[in-house]
Design goal:
This protein is of the alpha+beta class. It is built from 4 helices and 9 strands, in the order E-E-H-E-E-H-E-E-E-E-H-E-H. Strands 8-5-3-4-2-1-9 form a 7-stranded antiparallel β-sheet. It starts with a strand and ends in a 20-residue tail after the last helix.
Length: 208
């Protein structure tokens, strides 16, 4: 079971989602998307909340209001974190999550600690939680299929982009070649480069 939320603090609304339990979290960890940002309450057990970035967006330019929404949601879905104030929420790109065979179900580490960001959440803001919960839906998605379809679409776009780039380069090469040939032609027919058959007034010999 996966729970989906729509954050309307940005337009179009952003997708935020999380698993129902630690076993669902394992599937989310396995089949996450490169543009997903993972949120978790620091030093406490909590849900794994994901924010899906828009195309071309990076973790560094997420609007603060959107970060606040995800942080509030993950705090609310932490048994311990929801009861206390001034907690820290960590977040990082899905691609920075490290899962090793010796880890317990739902446990995760990082490939690069310096790429993990933190935000302090002073208290739960019920207005945010209520707004997000109004948009809440649930589903049993085929996470693997969704990831494979996403990757196939990316490959298609990359192939199209490479084709367009090759065509652009070929057109540029043709243009440069045409310009070079034009310059060579113009030089050939400059007055100083031309010769004549005129023999300075001397008649040709007549052969009888």
């Amino acid at each position: 079971m996966v729970f989906y939320f729509q954050s309307d603090v940005v337009s179009p609304p952003a997708l935020i989602y999380m698993g129902k339990d630690k076993y669902e979290n394992e599937e989310l960890i396995r089949w996450g998307w490169p543009e997903d940002v993972w949120f978790h309450v620091h030093n406490y057990s909590s849900a794994h909340v994901y924010l899906r970035l828009k195309e071309g967006q990076s973790v560094d330019d997420i609007p603060q209001a959107l970060i606040n929404d995800a942080a509030q949601l993950v705090k609310y879905n932490s048994i311990q974190g929801n009861k206390i104030n001034n907690i820290e929420v960590v977040y990082t790109l899905w691609s920075n999550l490290k899962k090793t065979p010796d880890m317990e179900v739902g446990q995760i580490g990082y490939f690069c600690e310096k790429d993990v960001k933190k935000i302090r959440v002073e208290k739960r803001v019920n207005e945010i939680i209520n707004r997000l919960n109004k948009s809440k839906t649930e589903d049993h998605p085929d996470l693997r299929r969704q990831r494979e379809e996403r990757d196939a679409e990316e490959r298609r776009k990359n192939k199209h982009s490479l084709k367009a780039q090759r065509e652009k380069e070929e057109e540029e090469m043709k243009r440069q070649k045409a310009e070079a040939e034009s310059r060579s032609y113009d030089k050939l027919f400059k007055p100083e480069s031309m010769t004549t058959n005129y023999d300075d007034g001397n008649d040709s010999d007549d052969f009888m």
